[in-house]
Amino acid sequence: MTFDSIEYVLFLALVVSVFAALPGRARVPFLLVASLGFYSVWSVPLTALILISGLTDFGVGLALGRTERLTRRKLLLLLSVAVNLGILGYFKYRGFFLDNLHALGLVEQGGVAELLLPPGISFYTFQTMSYSVDVYRRELEPTRSPTRFLLYVSFFPQLIAGPIERAKKLLPQFEALAGHRVASEDLAAGLRLILFGLFKKVVLADYCALLVDRVFADPGAYGGWASLCACLLFTLQIYFDFSAYSEIAKGSARLLGVELVWNFDQPYLAANISEFWRRWHISLSNWFRDYVYKPLGGSQRGKARVLLNLAATMFLSGLWHGAAWNFVIWGLFHGVLLLVHHQLRERAWVVRLRERAPRVFGVVTWAWTLHVVILGWLLFRVEQIADVRVIAGSIGHALAGGESITASELGIIVGFYAILGLSLAARHLRLLERVQDRASLSLVFYAGLAVASILLAREQAPQFIYFQF
């Protein structure tokens, strides 16, 4: 039951209708049952893992609230980390590590059978574990409601692929649902987000996937210009796909009177790689900042330690995305980019260039950032590391004049940059806000998105990319 399916539309309509009709005290238990039911569509047995993680952190939170002894508090936090990362590691990384240990001759047998990856495990594990860390740090009072806490862990709009929420933001909203009145403003805002997200997924992302999937399945069968087009289209696809999920999640929650965080802020308009990570998958970036980078020392220690902290954080970010070397290399690649940016940004010659020609400097740094991000997506998307050399080699050959370009390939390349230009113009002119401010225009616009999504949806549409994580 994915967000772009008719089953989800019917499920959401039923949940919102029942939620609105229920008395206040019954709403949170109802949403918990609905959320666990939503997850059980994928697997009833795997629903137990959510309950194990959630009840562990609920109990750890209560125990932390009753003790002041530092040793005991550390042991309780260790229990949360061990249970959550133990489950995540077993299901997601067991085969990867055993295969690599076997390749090094450290274990006798690799190639273990792959386990079914529980949907959303990387997301809800980080979400529930952050609660125990916040209570341990005394940044949050432990909740005494197991129902509200389990809903925090399993809330269906953001359960499978985020955004990764914080207990200090979500738990108070769940507590307030008892007195919440379903408002037309919430319904309108939620529907707008859902319609916009569906359009981005079924029209934009899924049609980008047509060429992307073919080229990356057999890179050697395609020329350099086709490979370049596939890289550009994947850059659009992954953004449209993931931001679409986040917007549908945010819209679904808004229908129920719950505000989720924004997960994207037009990342391809970022002027540098650090800004890119403040705009891309914001909830995950903030999670790694608060629970990995800062505890390692952040930017408060010596230069060498700061660089090491950045590298370690991005390595773990890459590993979080998947149990494969291309994700690890992708994370390290971005770690290197952040290290270079951190080293250069305050150099005297860089400061002089920025001050003397700020517009030119901004355009150059934006172009550099965009294209190294595209290179990173090549590392992210390949099915095996050897494909990077094949694709990069064919693109280099084409750019050097070794291959003629077709009209359709030229159209894709021009269209890619045109989309970015339109995004920049729309941001500066606040076009979407202007549409929403005029009721008649807004109705026509979103009705058009709905009709286009219905008419243009592919019969065999690919699933959301981040479902695999």
Automatic annotation (TrEMBL):
EC number(s) from the headed UniProt entry: 2.3.1.-
One cellular-component annotation, GO: plasma membrane
Membrane-spanning intervals of the chain: 42-63, 75-93, 319-340, 360-380, 410-427, 439-457
Top-level enzyme category: transferase
InterPro entries documented for this protein: Ac/AlaTfrase_AlgI/DltB, AlgI, MB_O-acyltransferase, MBOAT_fam
Membrane topology term: Multi-pass membrane protein
Assigned keywords, A-Z: Acyltransferase, Cell membrane, Membrane, Transferase, Transmembrane, Transmembrane helix
GO biological process: alginic acid biosynthetic process
Coiled-coil regions listed in the entry: none
UniProt GO molecular function: acyltransferase activity
Location in or out of the cell: Cell membrane
Entry superkingdom: Bacteria
Family from the record: Belongs to the membrane-bound acyltransferase family.
Name of the protein this chain belongs to: Peptidoglycan O-acetyltransferase
Organism: Enhygromyxa salina
Taxonomic classification: Bacteria, Pseudomonadati, Myxococcota, Polyangia, Nannocystales
